[in-house]
Sequence to fold (218 residues):
Amino acid sequence: MAAFVEARNLGADGVELDVHRSADGVLVVHHDATAAGVGVLAEHSAAEIRRVLPSVPTLDEALDACAGLLVNVEVKNLPGDADYDPDEHAATAVVELLHSRQRRDDVLVSAFSLASIDRVRGLDATIPTAFLTLVGFDPLEGAAVAAGRGHATIHPDVRSIVGPVAAALADRAARLGMTVNAWTVNLPEEIRRLAAAGIDGVITDVPDVARAALADSS
Fold:
């Protein structure tokens, strides 16, 4: 939670976070499906997780802390994950939580799994969704696939958009009516390169550095 507050102080437009379901259906914010001292989060209640790891917030708490910022909620649910759920309960829970909060949050739901973001769109097509892609996956193909399923944004690994690929992806996305946010981009020269190529945004660990780099290039 302190990191979310600091991101705002450093000039971030938003924050990116990962969610997993607890055994009692609460969405908790944690990168991995497992945590030291707890094990697989999905096998423990939210109260049990909080007792061992008091710094792990619920998504509800994180959204409150990030009011006024864009919150990129990444749903982690791929085959092979310790808490993999083919029924996509986590994606469903994200939609239900946003509805319970009366849609007052500025949220983008992303995932490496098309099934996860497809579930979000199937439940509420007004919630923006983004397809995450790894290095080695053709981001131009990813943009076409995502657009064909109604997703408005693609999040490519920055290592997959080197050289002329960045401008080609920005052009294809624009023609498809999509936006592109690259991850994880921390070097000023990389930030300036992507901005010049037409990439819409970057996910970064250093928002103050990114702000300064963009100001230098304007």
Notes: Residues 128-218 form a domain with the TIM Barrel fold (CATH 3.20.20.190). The chain has two domains: 1-126, 128-218.
